[in-house]
Design a protein that fits this description.
With 251 residues, the protein is α/β, with parallel strands linked by helices. The chain has a single domain, classed as Alpha-Beta Barrel (TIM Barrel). The protein contains eleven helices and eight strands. Strands 1-2-3-4-5-6-7-8 form an eight-stranded parallel barrel, surrounded by five helices. Helix 1 packs parallel to helix 2, helix 1 runs parallel beside helix 11 and helix 5 crosses helix 7. Bound molecules: phosphoenolpyruvate (PEP).
């Protein structure tokens, strides 16, 4: 049976003191949950401190980006092995902010996905359409292209060690959540797309929804048959909200 996962994406927020307060409250709030169902993806400089705080808790941790290269003269980049050194389990690849603001193509995202898996990390692969693409009826085509680039590079079986996050760009940070049915339709499409190539991988694949998930809408989203938890931006910075969202996922 597939796992359900709620992961926080802190983006470029936090400081040492705030992080500790937030994580202490999250750890206390989710203590009764199963290990593996809750994680935070934090800015690189805080990985060391976050590792110390979260080790021996049920909350996993990871990063928000990764270099496609293993090592070398790549000033400013961070490799998958470096993330492994800090006990990361997850790394987000292909977040729409990286695609749109930092020019990451689907091919680059696929290389990052491969680099993550080669170091034993689980990539959280983000896919999703812009408002313009949705309104022009191109949602499935966009999602299929983003997913297809990864499948072409890494193979369908690689999805056995990955999480997919469907994040419609128009819903991220806007307060405009996809309706449960809108999200379910795309999740079902993603699962069918994978099932055409490998039914077992598809049925075990965790597909998160991301885009303005809040404490008051998480449960109805997560109740949909193909929505296996969420990738949470803004609400992951508010301890009570993030704990409620984590609790809304039933494994
Ligand atoms: C995100 O950054 O992945 C995200 C879903 O953000 P928010 O929850 O704030 O929309």
């Amino acid at each position: 049976m597939r796992e359900k996962l709620v992961a926080g994406n802190w983006k470029m927020h936090g400081d040492l003191l705030q992080n500790r307060e937030l994580l202490d409250a999250v750890v206390a709030g989710v203590a009764a949950m199963r290990k593996g169902s809750c994680a935070v993806c934090v800015p690189y400089p805080y990985l060391s401190a976050v590792q110390v705080i979260l080790q021996d808790t049920i909350v996993d941790w990871g990063a928000q980006n990764i270099s496609q290269y293993d090592k070398g003269a790549y000033t400013g980049e961070v490799s998958a092995n470096m993330l492994s050194d800090f006990g990361c389990r997850y790394v987000i690849v292909g977040h729409s902010e990286r695609r749109a603001l930092f020019g990451e193509s689907s091919d680059t995202v696929a290389l990052k996905y491969v680099a993550a898996q080669n170091s034993g990390l689980t990539p959280i692969l983000c896919v999703g359409e812009s408002l313009e693409q949705r309104e022009s009826g191109a949602t499935e085509q966009v999602v299929a292209e983003q997913l297809g680039a990864v499948i072409m590079k890494a193979g369908i079986d690689s999805l056995a060690n990955a999480v997919v996050a469907y994040e419609p760009v128009w819903a991220i940070g806007t307060g405009k959540t996809a309706t449960p049915q809108q999200a379910q339709d795309v999740h079902e499409f993603i699962r069918r797309n994978v099932a055409d190539k490998n039914a077992e991988v598809a049925s075990n694949l965790t597909i998160q929804y991301g885009g303005s998930v809040k404490a008051n809408n998480a449960a109805e989203l997560f109740a949909m048959p193909d929505i296996d938890g969420g990738l949470i931006g803004g609400a992951s910075l508010i301890a009570n909200d993030f704990v409620s969202i984590c609790q809304a996922v039933q494994n």
